[in-house]
Amino acid sequence: MNSGDDTRPRVEGHHARLRVLHVSWPVQRPERSRGWWAVDATTSANANVAVYSTFAGVGFFAGSINNILGPKLTLFIGSMGYALYVGSYLATNIHPHAGAFEITAGAILGCCAGLLWTAQGSLMMAYPTENQKGRFVGIFWAIFNLGGVVGASVSLGQNFHSTTNSVSNGTYIGFLVLTVIGVGIPMFMADPKKMIRTDGTKVVAPRQPSWKTEIYGLYLALKTDPMIILLFPMFFASNWFTTYQFNDYNAALFNIRTRSLNNLLYWLAQIIGSLAIAVLLDQPRFTRRFRAFAGWTVLFFTVFAAHIWGYFYQKQYTRATIPEDSQKLDMYDAPYIGRVWLYVLYGALDAMWQTTAYWMMGAMSNDPAKLAYFAGFYKSIQSAGAAGVWRADAVKLPYMNIFLSTWTLLVGGLVFALPMIYLRVTNHTEEADETIANMDLNQHPGTVEAVKAA
């Protein structure tokens, strides 16, 4: 097999994975941004509690499920919940008392999303070489947010001439069609077992021996790499802030067409933010350890810049001063400009946070099986935090309390991540790390030599 043949499966597999996410994620956005979709804010928040509660439960074990079923089937099953979820929006838009269906659909989506995100995350971190991991994460996050750009553009086009606070049925129907199309796309993805990295090394595919072995592998991943626990606070914070940004800032302050424009700009900012931080994290002029500290520093200053700015806006309103049925801020109003630029910064920060978190996990291992566990930990703990903050929003906790909790958790996540970077991130990953993927039926990890001989 020549070098062209070796690299073709890798490229096809990478882009096929990105295509499924590109089609599926315009409608994945409701999972994270219910504020501008919702008929009723309380039902919206409770549905998100359902999403993230089941997401957290399934996500913790999703790495084991992915290693048994394989990423293609895991992605296929994981993408099924989104159409049902979008359908629940349409149902509640037509029948406002269908909130129970919306919450149930959210619980089902959480199970599916746990599988989808874990499979995606493990491949995204395992396919690239060590000096390409930031680029791969950045490219994924950019294409992922192209889905958000499409979604926000459709909503803006549908609602541009409306100054109300509601979304049309046509908007939901458009997204429903896109989700249904996206369900089957993972089955066209190239077989990960055939992937060859650009440096000629083989991607080690899990042997998928048994459920017992997979559960042991989950334990082994924590035992052999306990430093991952220091990233758990960073994981916990990684979706906490979206509740404030979407429900307590965007939905609270702006009318529907302005929210749609804001989200278009937010997703564009995410594309820029993810690619910008990816360039830094893969900068060949610096060692990997230096890049890790540099990425941490950029996040630290961006967190403080965004939240010092946001604090001065948050002081100006409460739940009592802007009830849900009040007149909202429009894009042509004078106070809009400063507030939308803050929202753009929030979007860039979100992308940089997620990209850096994935990059840090990727810097700890090249083993797809271990990375599947890490991705599962990430999405599980992230979702546990999101479930908590969406519940806090549902019971009408003051906006300022949620804002300050967001700021505190982001800073705390960075503080805990710093010793992990110092103690665990090296300039190169040892080959001996790629062992969990080849554990045999007797729960004995395989050797690198055995992997290369396979």
Key phrases:
0% strand; mainly alpha; Growth Hormone, Chain: A; 454 residues; globular; disordered C terminus; disordered N terminus
Polypeptide structure, described:
72% of the residues lie in helices and 0% in strands. With 454 residues, the chain is mainly α. The radius of gyration is 21 Å and the shape is globular. Residues 1-30 and 447-454 have low confidence and may be disordered. The chain crosses the membrane at residues 73-91, 103-127, 139-160, 172-190, 227-244, 264-281, 293-312, 340-359, 402-423. This is Major facilitator superfamily (MFS) profile domain-containing protein. Keywords: Membrane, Transmembrane, Transmembrane helix. It holds the Pfam family UNC-93.
In short:
Pfam families: UNC-93. The protein has 454 residues and is mainly alpha-helical.
Topology, element by element:
Blueprint: H1 3-32, H2 41-69, H3 71-78, H4 81-94, H5 99-126, H6 133-159, H7 169-183, H8 211-224, H9 232-237, H10 240-253, H11 256-281, H12 288-314, H13 336-364, H14 368-394, H15 399-424, H16 448-453
Helix pairs in contact: 1-4, 1-6, 1-7, 2-3, 2-5, 2-8, 2-14, 3-5, 4-5, 4-7, 5-14, 6-7, 6-11, 6-13, 10-14, 10-15, 11-13, 12-13, 12-15
For the record, the count of structural domains works out to 1
**Architecture, according to CATH?**
Up-down Bundle
Main β-sheet description: none
Low-confidence stretches: 1-30, 447-454
Protein name: Major facilitator superfamily (MFS) profile domain-containing protein
Membrane topology: Multi-pass membrane protein
Keywords: Membrane, Transmembrane, Transmembrane helix
Subcellular location: Membrane
